[in-house]
Structure formats: structure tokens, C-alpha cells
């Protein structure tokens, strides 16, 4: 055994309280190097009477390592533990003191989880595990009230640019709520709706006022009430990293310079405020001078923004916040933000925009979730890159699974595209078969899935602003087959808890083979999903212990032959099978 690859630390995603009775332990070994890992556990004050062994399950792998997990239920909410590893007849013990050939005397030098304190536990809203999100840019979804159109509004469906407007508004969303219900959506995420000069509204001028071109505060309240009456949650987008240059406090700094009472609200490097060689003399989002960055460590700024966060939850009854450029705001602010939001509504869902590994925001004191762009990148890479095989795909997904605690994985905000990326249909080369494979994976995988408006009827588009096209409402121009497909897969997920909360594992993911099989399973139902990510018809075979499988989409019985399931799949085809366990 290559002991240099053994890894565990009693922190973060390697050991954590999953619920008030359960502690998850994880360990890493070299890939295909260790046959068995056992967690040997006990209470440090009463080891002999509480000692217990847990055979650890290899939950995932990546290109270099295997990852093992055990779910420990200690008698007294605390546990000391070490790991016993075996490869053939060779054994090794690993504790906090290092690796030894024999078991060290417990419990000195063992790892330790001191106590399950519920107040410290990460706990995301339960409803987020059931949610099927739909992202909407209000300006581009539907024009329900032409009377509030900005000057120069262009005809619906034109080519989007960075500056143009098409008149979409909150009334347009209200008018199409039944469409969302028909699709199966039970949660919507709106990009910013507060007063701002741009079409995208990420440059806020007034944080407590709905932009007049979209409606007003009362109309937003009406929209939220109607959504709730139809079983749809509402998450708004907040920009607390920066504001518009038209923001009154920033205007005061521009006018009065360092004598402004708001000078400490921003990060000013030098006066006067200007742009030199493309770089503002003050910190901004990127280097955009029209979006100055807040000093969120300033007590006045912090209180101002926390009041905003609380206001919309209490007054309008929104169900959560998506937080723009969240990784560029200090952690102390986000800790206070969570306290404020959860005090106003303990069930509010907090999603940060972080494009990379986000563990430091996801330990229970800041966000519930993040925009899972690493997921979308890995999924789209597999279904668009002919050189990527099933083994590499499983490795990539496996590395994402162990990146966060399990309760985070259950509500991670998974998406295939957004207002900041090319449309998924464009990413897959306009091949609807590949698009369907991506959507099948999205809706049968762990986490909280989100669809970008219009994907379900075939909207395409490249990078911003092309991805921000107007929603297509002409049925003759909509891809209704695609709509029916999304509707069918959404219903399948909503009707089967195993697809929302069940255990996930690849059953087949081989080198030099782009066909994969994976499973979702809970105490009641077992699903297997079969995918042919190749341009050839194929037959996939896999050993099955039982012969009671059905097609999840047609109800057709699917039989094994001598303990083997043989599934024929079309080019870029898929099949979803299930069996009831009781």
C-alpha cells in the first residue's frame, strides 16, 4: 500500500456531523491500491464498552485516488477513531499520530470528533432538496405591460446587445406562471429586479425599489404571492459586491471626494475618482468604472446591505437569495448575512456565485449552496468531447462528490448554462440528442437542478449577450418535443425520491468507452440510468441480480438473461430503468 497517499484530517469535508445523530468519516487512498478500509471507533471516555467497527464504502474515485466513507452513530454524540486498511494480507493503521503496522493503544493519538453541536451543524432548507429551479432574466422573459417599456424598446425577439431593451417585466412572469406549473417548475431564480440603468440590472441604484421598467414593489409582492399559491418558491439576485456609479452614496463621493461622509463606503486608492489607462482609481467589479466595489467591512455599509437582505424577505416574503460575485466579498460579511437572513426566515435558501471550489463558504456559517459551474463544465465536456471516455467522466464527477459534505451535495445548485455562459444547446453543437443526455444527467443526479429559461423550447446562443435572448412564445417556433422531454424528466424526478435523495454511484465507466451506467437508490426504489455517448448504435450489458426491472418512462418490463441485463441504445441514446424494493 502506498502510504504516502493515505489522507484524512479531522476538519471540513473529511469529518462532519451529517445530522444530530450521525457523523460522516471520509478517507483517501491511492486508486485501486487498498481493498478494505475499516473505521474503528469508540468513546474516548469509555472505549471498551463503545468500540465499534464500520466497513467504509468506496463512494467515489478520481484519476489518482479512491475515497471511502462511513456513517458513524456514536452513543454519546462524540467519537474517537482510527482507520484499519488492508490490501491482500498486508495491514496498516492510520491515526492522527501517523501510519503504523499495528493498532495503537486507544485513544491517545486517535482522531477525534469532540461533540455533535446542533447549533454548529450545516443545515440547508429541506425544500431545496425537492426544488426544480428555473432561471429567468425578467427583461427577456415576457412583456406583460408595454406601458412601462423603456424609451427605445425594441421589438420582441430581436438580437440582444449589451445595451438594448425588449420590455420584459414582472407582469410578463405573472402571465406565464401556468406555463411554469405545466413544465413542472417549483422554484424560480430571478436575476436582479432592483432599480438599475442597465438591461441586466447588476448595477443597482436603489436596493429597496423594483426597477420601474419591470414594475414596482407591490407587483413583485403580488408575483411572489401568486407563485406561492401555485407551489413555486422565489429566489432573488442580490449584488452586494458592487453597485452602480449612479448609486447616491457613490455620487456623493464623486462630488465631495475624500470629504464625503461616504468615502469609507468604497475602496478608494486615490483621488479624484477617474479611470487611468483603463483602470479606475477605485476598486470595482472587474475594471468597470460604472460598478464601484463596496467596502463591506465598513459597519455602515454592512448594516445598509443587511437591512436590504432582511427587507425583501420580511416585506415581500421571498424564499432566498442568489449572491452575485460572492467570492469577492469578505467572509465576515457573509457570516453576518446568514444570521440576518436566517433570523428573518430560517427556511431561506442562500446560493453564492462562486465558480471554483467553494468549501470555505459551505461549512454552515455562510451559504447553503453555490452555482455549481464545475458540474456544468464536467458534464458538458463529457457530452461534447469525443476524446473523453466514461472513466474520465466518472473521475471528474467523483472528485466533485467528495469536494463537499453530503448535505451540501444534496442542495448544490446544478446548472447546464446561465446568463453568464453560452446556451447548453449551443455548447452541444445544436445536437438535441446530446442536449437530452445532459438534461437526463442533470435531473437524475444529486443536488438542486436549474434550467435556464427557454432551454426547454430550444433557445440557443453564444456568450453574453447572445445567451440572453428573448423567450420564444410562438408555439410554431418552439421545440415542443423538447418541451415535452423536459416536462417528462422533471415529473420523473419530482415523483421519485430516489432521484432527489438517493445514493449515487457509477456502475459502468470504463477507459476507451463512452458508454456509462449509474444508479440512484434509496430504501424504496432502485434506478439505473444507461447512456450511449457515442455516434453508433450499441448494446450495453451489465450483471443484474434481479429480474424485476421496468422502463421508468414507458412502464415496459425489461428482463435480464441469465443474470445479465442487455440494453440496446440508439446513437446518443439513453434508458432509465427502475425496480421497487418492497
UniProtKB/TrEMBL annotation:
Keywords: Glycosidase, Hydrolase. Gene3D superfamilies: Glycosidases, Golgi alpha-mannosidase II, Immunoglobulins, Oligo-1,6-glucosidase, Domain 2. SUPFAM superfamilies: (Trans)glycosidases (SSF51445), E set domains (SSF81296), Glycosyl hydrolase domain (SSF51011). One of its GO terms (molecular function) is hydrolase activity, acting on glycosyl bonds. Residues 135-493 form the Glycosyl hydrolase family 13 catalytic domain. InterPro entries: GH, GH13_cat_dom, Glyco_hydro_13_lg-like_dom, Glyco_hydro_b, Ig-like_fold, Ig_E-set, Malt_amylase-like_C, O16G_dom_2. Belongs to the glycosyl hydrolase 13 family. This is Glycosidase. It comes from Paenibacillus eucommiae.
